[in-house]
Amino acid sequence: MSEDNFNLSMRKFLKSVGVTSQQKIEEAIRAIDAGSGLTSIDLTVTLTCHELGLRHEVKGTVELP
User: Fold this and answer.
1) Which of 19, 23, 35, 57 lies 20 to 30 A from 44 at CA?
2) In whole angstroms, what is the distance from residue 65 CA to residue 30 CA?
3) pLDDT for 29-46, tens place per residue?
4) Can you give the residue ranges of every domain in the chain?
């Protein structure tokens, strides 16, 4: 696989992760009671690849409207 194909494949994967993750978070937020009093949520994303022995976590906080 050429480096260009690798980069294209990686970007396609990461775009899919970003788009689907945002959709799932938004669905979950809409499903909670509007009177819940939540002003922010803490999120953790875990990336794993068994072939590479990779496990990476990204943590963050998202402010709610």
Assistant:
1) 35
2) 11
3) 989 877 788 999 999 999
4) 3-63
Query: Measured between alpha carbons, how far is 10 from 4 in angstroms, rounded to an integer?
Result: 10
Rounded to an integer, what distance in angstroms lies between the CA atom of residue 14 and that of residue 58? 14
Give the Å distances, CA to CA, from 41 to 16, 20, 23, 37, 50: 22, 18, 15, 11, 29
Structure-token match 């709610």, residue found: 64
**Gap between the Cα atoms of 57 and 54, Å rounded:** 10
Considering the entire predicted model, what is its pTM?
0.83
Residue 21 corresponds to which amino acid?
Answer: S
Residue 13 has phi, psi (to 5 degrees) of: -60, -50
CA atoms of 9 and 1, how far apart (whole Å): 10
Tell me what the mean pLDDT of segment 52-64 comes to: 97
